[in-house]
Amino acid sequence: xxxxxxxxxxxxxxxxxxxxxxxxxxxxxxxxxxxxxxxxxxxxxxxxxxxxxxxxxxxxxxxxxxxxxxxxxxxxxxxxxxxxxxxxxxxxxxxxxxxxxxxxxxxxxxxxxxxxxxxxxxxxxxxxxxxxxxxxxxxxxxxxxxxxxxxxxxxxxxxxxxxxxxxxxxxxxxxxxxxxxxxxxxxxxxxxxxxxxxxxxxxxxxxxxxxxxxxxxxxxxxxxxxxxxxxxxxxxxxxxxxxxxx
Length: 246
Description:
This protein has 7 helices and 11 strands. Helix 4 (169-179) packs antiparallel against helix 5 (182-189). The chain folds into 2 domains: 2-94, Roll (Nuclear Transport Factor 2, Chain: A); 106-243, Glutaredoxin. By secondary structure, it is α+β, with helices and mostly antiparallel strands.
C-alpha cells in the first residue's frame, strides 16, 4: 500500500523535475548498492524494480526511483538503512516557483573526444552525457534518432559517462570509446555483448572528470551551445523545440 501511494505521487524533487533520468551520486562514508535497495523495497513491494539511486535533496537520505508494472515512484531510505520513507521532498523556498534554469560553459566541453551522432558540420551542436546501462538514456537515444531523421542541421556529441550504480557500464564505455563507435553504443543500448576494450581507460576517466567539473551527476544530461542544461529524456518534438530554444 505504501508503494502504491508513492507511485501515484508525481516526482517533483529538483534533481530531474518530472522528467526521467539516472543519477550516480555517492559520498565516501555512505553507500547504498542496487542489490541492497532492492532487498529493502521488496519488503513492501515484491515486484518493485529499482531503476535509480542517488542522494536526496534532503541530507541523510537516499532517493530511490522504483518501477512496479506501469507505475513509477520515489522512495527514500535513510543512511542507517533502518527507515523507508514514501512521499515527496520539496524545498520550502521553491514552492510556487518555476524550476531554475542551469547553464554551464559550453567551451569547457572538448567535442573532439565525443562520439558524434549526426552530420559533423551541422549548424547546431548538442552535447549529451549518457550511460549505456541507463534505461532513460536508451529512451532518449531513440528520440535523438527521430530528431535526426527530420533535421540535418543538428548533431549530437555524445559524452559517455558511466554511473557508479551501473556496475557493467564502465567497461562498456571503455570499449565504445576505444573505437569511438556509434554502432557499439547502439549495440550496448540493445543489450548486445560488446568486445573487450582495446585501449586504456584514459578516455573514460577524462569523461568522468568532465562530468564532475560540470557538476553533472546523472544521465541523460544535455547541453546546448548557449550552455543551457536539460536533464532527463524528452519526446523528439519537445527535444527539437528545446534545441531551437523554444
